[in-house]
Write a structure and sequence with these properties.
mainly alpha, Cytochrome Bc1 Complex, Chain D, domain 2, 3 domains, two-stranded antiparallel ribbon, 4 strands, binds heme C, hydrogen ion transport
Length: 305
């Protein structure tokens, strides 16, 4: 309810809730008072199917009692719990509060399990089957929607199981990536490169760096234009983990392969973000995840899965 900018809907809901309770009470009161005209035999005079007559007995006491209890309960409930528009309720209960309480309890219960691992270097943790089982579950719940359940990524989302890193693959770097997030920014470069032909030429030069199929005449013409790119990607296209600039001389393509994909990224640039997990996950969880991710590309040292 707090998402609404005016109090209107809150009042609206409050009014409808209270009005329907009042209407129930009124109905009860009226039916209790009203008396149908009675013939001498305590029937209303209505007859169906020749001899089926309607008796005029009062509502059973226990039934009226239950109805009154329901109304009292409803009012008591609405005082104690949130239910009337955006009113909080006297007990201060909320679903969000309940969730925080459960999370705090779970964290307290898990603390001893994690304590064992937070003291361990990542390389050693990656060899511990229990830690890696925890890491895998954390990954599936928090990371798989972007990086894939096998962590191999997809277009725009890096593969975490290879040895190719945008931001560095040492455990400390991985932990920094997960904790603080990363934003990779490749600015639109077409203006710095020159004409559309120049852009095509430099794209072919980029393809030549990894020995990918390319037009060698265009690559030759594009080589000198690559100086505009070297500040970030390096003179030989080896990349720069400080800037998150990918290695262009391997055959790993985050944003698609071939002349057209490269021309497009030179023309429009690319901003790509890994969301920070600090605050979403605990420090201990991030530590276990870092070891897990590190283990994905360092299979020799990691626990068999
Ligand atoms: C909303 C999508 C999204 C989620 C969720 C996400 N990531 Fe990422 N992640 C990305 C993107 C996009 C990048 C690439 C950032 C860039 O281009 O610089 C990235 C980059 C990374 C990198 C750096 C890779 C490299 O080559 O340096 C690591 C490590 C990583 N993510 C781990 C994780 C882990 C662990 C989780 C789960 C806690 C996670 N990510 C959750 C989108 C996501
Ligand atoms: C300011 C630094 C910067 C400059 C200058 C720059 N790039 Fe980039 N480039 C990046 C970053 C950062 C990324 C990664 C974006 C991301 O995180 O997804 C990138 C990504 C790319 C990619 C995608 C790689 C892949 O794996 O799919 C190509 C291709 C590329 N750049 C080519 C070039 C070319 C060609 C030039 C020169 C015309 C150039 N870049 C200039 C920073 C730069």
């Amino acid at each position: 309810m707090s998402d609404f900018i005016s109090g209107f809907w809150s009042h609206y809901v409050t009014f409808i809730s209270l009005a329907s309770i009042a209407a129930c009470a009124l109905l009860l009161w009226i039916t209790n008072r009203a008396r149908a005209p009675i013939g001498g035999d305590n029937t209303t005079g209505h007859v169906w199917d020749e001899d089926l007559r309607e008796m005029n007995n009062p509502l059973p006491r226990w039934w009226v009692g239950l109805f009154v209890l329901t109304i009292v309960f409803a009012l008591g409930y609405l005082v104690a719990y949130p239910g009337l528009g955006s009113m909080q309720g006297q007990l201060g209960w909320s679903t969000a509060g309940e969730y925080r309480k459960d999370m705090a309890k779970a964290e307290a219960e898990l603390a001893p399990v994690y304590a064992k691992y937070t003291a361990m270097p990542a390389e050693q943790m990656a060899g511990d089957p229990q830690a890696m089982a925890i890491g895998e579950r954390l990954f599936l719940n928090n990371c798989a929607q972007c990086h894939g359940s096998d962590a191999r990524g997809s277009k725009g989302f890096p593969n975490l199981t290879d040895a190719d890193w945008l931001h560095g693959g040492e455990p400390a770097k991985i932990q920094e990536t997960i904790t603080l997030g990363r934003t990779g920014v490749m600015p639109p470069m077409a203006a710095a490169v020159g004409s559309p032909e120049d852009v095509k030429n430099v794209a072919n030069y980029v393809l030549s760096l990894s020995g990918s199929p390319h037009d060698s005449v265009r690559a030759g013409l594009g080589k000198s234009k690559f100086t505009a790119c070297a500040a970030c990607h390096g003179m030989t296209g080896g990349g720069n983990p400080m800037l998150g600039a990918p290695n262009l001389s391997d055959r790993v393509w985050l944003h698609g392969y071939g002349q057209d994909a490269i021309v497009s990224i030179i023309n429009t640039g690319k901003t790509n973000q890994m969301p920070a997990q600090q605050g979403r996950l605990t420090e201990a969880q991030i530590q276990v995840l870092s070891a897990y991710v590190w283990g994905l590309s360092n299979k020799a040292q990691s626990a068999p899965r």
